[in-house]
Design brief:
Length: 371
Amino acid sequence: MLSMKKELAIKLETLKHKQKQILIGFDGFVDEIIHAVDKRMDSENFTRIETMLQFAKRIEKAAGYSTNIELFPTIEKIGGNGPIMAHALSKQHAKVTYIGALGEPHIHLVFQPMAKHLELISIAQAAHTDALEFVDGKLMLGKMSCLNDVTYEKMIQTLGEQKLLKMLHETDLFATVNWSMLPHMTDIWQSLYENILPKLSIKPIKPIFFVDLADPEKREHHEIKRALDLLKSFESHFHVVLGLNQKEAYDVAHLLSLATKDDTLKHVNQVLYTYLEIYAVVIHPVDQSCAIVDGTFAHDMGPLAKNPKLTTGAGDNFNAGFVYGLLLGLTPHESLLLGMSTSGFYVRETKSPTMVELIDFLNRWDAQQLD
């Protein structure tokens, strides 16, 4: 009997489907990937601080005094949940439009290569992130005051209501991500619900509305609850899908008094799905993922990389693969495998995969030939 990974690889090789229309927004960051220097041997060579705990101990040791930690930039790349997810989806058979904070009056150089594969519409200056990467996680230091300019009014000023209405009418997937760093995201949803949804026709096959909260810990509890309670309003016209990493899932479940840190991942998935009354809730820890889609629960372990080359953006690549699986009509379990394959390839190869590369990755994963 073939494994599910092998079956999925074969299915993807033979699957024929119409090009998908995708609309994503609204953040935008220039990400500078940085290693913290532990010991420098000479002008060219150094050892890095490898773990977050080692970095924390270095800072703790300097408390009450002062210290200097050299930061070594490795690459500058597109950042923000939206641009990374959009870029990953542009590698598939999809027509992608991205609206967000990409630079004013001109789109920032780091985003310009994306214009070869998708349509870019900028409504604000791009934010900046110093992403300190460690083998066990990353520390994201953001400069993001420009994201205050990402508003419904600015979007309408740039696009016009009729163009936005047309985009949403034609889309198969509408994704709004990085809620926590966009102060006006909930107001954008509210305005879309009040001004745009009443003018949209209800399709026989509803498009997907994907939402990623992106570490809401810094936001007030009443803001988080207002945002979550608003999501179910979109179910009249969309299949609403909420994506969370493990920390976000447990934090939100605790905030809503639905679960504790001792509850299982499956339990947290179930109580969030029941509370939110939306089409799907997907949770993606580093080493596994699970989802409830239209009442069906699925779970599987992932292709954990022993030495990932790049982790910033792994969650966004998972989200891209998972929702693309849903767009293709894959089962919840198959969609999880596609999500984990997309992120698994990304952390090993430092780029998002094409469909051919995804099929090859699934086959190598099945044959246990991954690092």
